[in-house]
Amino acid sequence: MDNTDGMIMVVNRSGSAAENLKELIEFMDAPNVCTATPAKWQQEIGDNRLEAVFIGPDLSDKDVRSLVDDIGKLDPNIPIVMLTEEDQE
Description:
The protein contains three helices and four strands.
């Protein structure tokens, strides 16, 4: 897979919470930031290379385990940031 453009992804069930974090990351001049749900995150990658993944606190334990496992298979060096409810405030 030839990935030329880096991307930061925010995975969360709540679209508004994901958008808030996306805007914060973009404010820090991150190049390409997208949001996705646990079921559709892989479709959002396209030809981009994941640089980091932020996982929202509203995902189930099963979703988190599956997401972390799949990201590790894609590239075990991708940083994963786990957010808590307190981070949303």
